[in-house]
Design goal:
This protein has 227 residues and is of the alpha/beta class. The protein folds into 2 domains: 61 residues; 140 residues, Nucleotidyltransferase, domain 5, CATH 3.30.420. Helices cover 45% and strands 16% of the residues. Strands 3-2-1-4-5 form a 5-stranded mixed beta sheet, with helices on both faces. Strand 4, helix 7 and strand 5 form a beta-alpha-beta unit. The radius of gyration is 24 Å and the shape is elongated.
Length: 227
């Protein structure tokens, strides 16, 4: 039996055609839908709404994609601005590595300083927002982004206007753009340069040893290079 909700939502779309076509953002479209009784939390109901929008030439998901691209472009512009501001800012160098164990399906990581001392190391948590179990690339990406997080904490602890982070890694295929964007999260001003050296394994040794160290035990202000 046909679902009468399709016709109901099409009638809503047509009755609000002018406002819907004039909407400049997906949030504006959602607000109109909410006011007209569309359940935004119901995938079926909202899905019917976005589909029926096509009848009047409004393509919700194209707009959503454009909004995302615009946000990312603004973030990239901000990165360039901060890189200029940080030209004379202090520098911090961190080394990163990750290991995935095929048998145990667990993974370990390490962020170390120039001497090889672990600053943040341990086993990946199941709820890690970047790492996918068993995937080396995502594990390396995750630990690199952990290094950026640590640098942001260093900037905060040392009360610095800005900080230049150099991430040293053996892994050649990191998503550097994503890493740079993490440097500006939460209002931080950490610029990031990634250096790849396949022979520099000081972080790898620490990850292999499966050492456990919480970054909160580190005196962050001592990590800043002053020479």
């Amino acid at each position: 039996m046909a679902d009468p909700r399709w016709d109901e939502i099409e009638a809503i779309v047509l009755a609000n055609k002018d406002d819907l076509k004039a909407a400049e953002t997906t949030d504006a479209l959602r607000e109109i839908a909410k006011q007209e009784g569309i359940d935004l939390d119901d995938n079926s109901d909202f899905g019917k709404f976005t589909h029926k929008l096509k009848v009047i030439g409004v393509r919700f998901f194209d707009m959503l994609k454009e909004e995302g691209e615009s946000r990312q472009a603004k973030k990239d512009e901000a990165i360039q601005e901060v890189e200029e501001e940080n030209r004379d800012a202090p520098e911090l160098s961190l080394w990163t590595a990750a290991i995935e164990d095929a048998e145990s399906k667990s993974g370990s990581y390490a962020v170390v300083d120039a001497t090889g001392e672990a600053l943040w190391a341990g086993t990946f948590r199941d709820d890690d927002y970047v790492r996918v179990q068993g995937d080396d690339a995502s594990a390396e990406q995750s630990v690199a982004e952990k290094a950026v997080f640590l640098a942001r904490k260093v900037q905060e602890a040392a009360k610095l206007d800005g900080l230049n982070l150099v991430v040293h890694t053996q892994y050649p295929d990191l998503d550097i753009t994503a890493i740079k964007r993490r440097g500006l999260a939460g209002g931080s001003k950490v610029t990031v340069t990634v250096t790849v050296d396949p022979d520099d394994d000081k972080a790898l040794f620490m990850a292999q040893d499966n050492v456990d160290r919480n970054w909160k035990t580190v005196d962050l202000t001592e990590l800043i290079q002053t020479d």
